[in-house]
Design a protein that fits this description.
- The protein is of the alpha/beta class.
- The protein contains 14 helices and 13 strands.
- It has 2 domains: 101 residues, Ribosomal Protein S8, Chain: A, domain 1; 280 residues, TIM Barrel (Alpha-Beta Barrel).
Length: 398
Amino acid sequence: MVRVRMLEDIDLEKEIKVDPASIPIFKSKMYNYNILIENIDVTSANIVKQEMLSRGGDAAIHKYAINHKIDKTNVLLIGTKKQYNLLIQKLKIMNYWDIPKVREALEKIFKNINRRYWEYSLNNNKKIILGNNSKIMGILNVTPDSFHAPSRIRSVDQAVENAKRMIGEGAEILDIGAESTRPGSESVELKEEIDRVIPVIKTLREEFPNIILSIDTYKSEVAKKAIENGVDIINDISGMQFDKDMVHVVAESKLPIVIMHIKGTPKDMQKNPYYENCISELLDYFEERILFAQKNGVEQIIIDPGFGFGKRVQDNLNLSYNIEEFRVLGYPILMGHSRKSTIGNILNIDNTNDRLEGTLALTSYYALKGIEIIRVHDVKENYRTIKMIEALRGYKKF
């Protein structure tokens, strides 16, 4: 019986019995990549379009680009990896207008988008491997005013109890913070933040020597003391912007840094935030922050698009749905969406206690997209959700 099927993916060796040596050739022709080039001069746009068409791909440009009634245009390129490779080779000999920028951008994209393995060095000669699964980062808030009341920790003993439970439920990283950064929150004095968080870090390091600990702070002095007491990752909501010394502390420690995007400060970030193009503006921000980090000796980077930090509901949905666009940066991604107001606004739920299902829906999507770290309050439920999604993602391997 002849049967015809539509496939999203296929194991060529298993299903077709092809020569293994030919698999890369077929793979380069199987999938289209849609790549948007923004704001290039129309002469370059017309050339790139013609070069892509001549290689069997396609390109969409502004309707007035052909007669030069405009100066700049966006270009959508559509093609296979093989077609892009041929295009890049041709563009190498065309060193005029915006064409070198286009070539460099395309080379960078194809270098980064399929990267799924990072091995980062941590404190005390530990390592973390990112990319082979979605790891749970459990939230430990040593604060009296975090937006989700059940997450508030008021003593070292309670922190140990919560940490033990989270580790047992599947958390591989614990993120410890002593200053609420919910919308409208006030900054905590340096001494108070240190007094809250350092005893907890010290005790957790003693009780759980193998767990990965992260410090959620934008203050360099807090980060420095946390590192001295065994923290492995610095999680800075400001992307090393609020404290000029943070980058030097991170560089000296040689530990990973989570660079998050925020528009404004926690106190004012939700006062009418606005983006012309959310994804493009976030990518510009990360390009600048990554370059800044690298110039100062920081190499182990994790990026966090900052769900809920200076963003409207549509911005959070936009960056979530298009999360794979951030792959062009070449670094692992962290998402922190747990029980946030966007979920409440969509589901019309004011009480954070009732936002678990919405959280799990987003967690499912992030896990399906292979996001490396998912930061949540409810470890057990999110861990189980991720494991089911990863079973689906890996089904073709069974």
